[in-house]
Write a structure and sequence with these properties.
Elements: E1 2-7, E2 14-19, E3 25-28, E4 35-38, H1 46-51, E5 56-65, E6 68-78, E7 83-87, H2 94-101, E8 109-114, E9 117-118, H3 123-127, E10 130-133, H4 145-155, H5 162-169, H6 185-196, E11 203-207, H7 215-230, E12 234-239, H8 242-248, E13 251-256, E14 259-265, H9 266-273, E15 278-283, H10 288-296, E16 300-306, E17 309-314, H11 319-328, E18 333-339, H12 343-354
Parallel strand pairs: 7-12, 7-13, 10-11, 11-12
Antiparallel strand pairs: 1-2, 3-4, 5-6, 5-8, 8-9, 13-14, 15-17, 15-18, 16-17
The protein binds adenosine-5'-triphosphate and magnesium ion.
The site of magnesium ion (MG) has 4 residues, from helix 2.
Length: 355
Amino acid sequence: MVQKTLKCSTCGNTLTLEVSTQEPTYATCPKCHTRAVYRPPPLVTKYTLQSSMETLQVTNVTKFYKAFKAVDDVSFSVKKGEIFGFLGPNGAGKTTTIKCILDLIHADKGMISVKGFDTRKEGKKAKQFIGYLPEKVAFYDNLTALQNLHFYAEMKQLPKEQCASLISLVGLEDVGQKKVGEFSKGMQQRLGMARAMLGSPSLLILDEPTNGLDARGVVLIREQIKQFRDKGVTIFLSSHILSEVQAVCDRVAIINKGRIVAQDTVDALRMRLQLKPKIVLELQEVTKEMIDAVEKLDGVDAVNVIGKMVHVMCKPYVKAQVIVTLTQKGAKIDNLHIMEPSLEEVFMKFTEETV
Ligand SMILES: Nc1ncnc2c1ncn2[C@@H]1O[C@H](COP(=O)(O)OP(=O)(O)OP(=O)(O)O)[C@@H](O)[C@H]1O
Ligand SMILES: [Mg+2]
């Protein structure tokens, strides 16, 4: 129990009450006799994270930078426990939307709520559920990883004890005492993930978490994201890399030029798009018979020959058939690779559909 001085919402009378920090406390105003309830602010503990409803709701959000509309009537919701991908090319409005969610900048229109708390009106309450990895992580170079985390824990008025375990959680235990100035980009990014996890947030907002990382770094961060999800953390992941989003996300919203152009599960989007891969083959010798046979296959849209290189644009299910047919016609394949549809193609497709 703690003592609180509260104001009656009906008559404005101030009264001092002993209230519980865990449960609602009911009281009657001695002046106007209104029965009222004091609800303690939610505690960011494992118990509350697992037991309360977890949702991010963005409704009709619009943001202008002077006359330029960077975010245009954006709506989506993130369900408890899912990994939600926010996919868009450079300049689409991803970071601007995230900054609105965090109330770092104010949306001109619309509403955003985190676990039912309006981020404008009840920003403090909403923010205590959020962990944030910014687009550009920055730390104090002359402090060690652990000292940096201690600093941020202090700023958030959180116990320092969790810092060491967070450092281990992101695989930096061997370099926890090393100055961050000596860290590689990937190490800094992982430290950024640890900082975002301070206070056990139930909603983790990651703005381009694998930006600038090598293949190994990408895999490590991806695994980290899945681990957090397995711990019950809801994840909002912004990216311009389609493969990254496909690999981890349950649902996706695609933003282009400030507008949401599609929103669905990853599989449903893939089905809807019916994007075609391109097979690029290097043959020892190319004959007309081989090309004719491939062109006749059901599902092949185009075949282009450039010297000994054969480019085949086809539906996904016919890829193997193309290779078999060429081999049957005597082709000797020196090299082969499949170019999966690029993000640009996805956007062009969606833009075509929505204009
Ligand atoms: N502070 C600002 N003042 C004016 N315009 C801005 C500002 N910040 C962003 N913009 C513009 O708003 C648009 C959206 O930018 P935003 O940073 O949200 O894109 P993004 O999707 O995060 O892109 P990226 O993938 O490059 O990070 C861009 O056209 C950008 O130039
Ligand atoms: Mg951005």
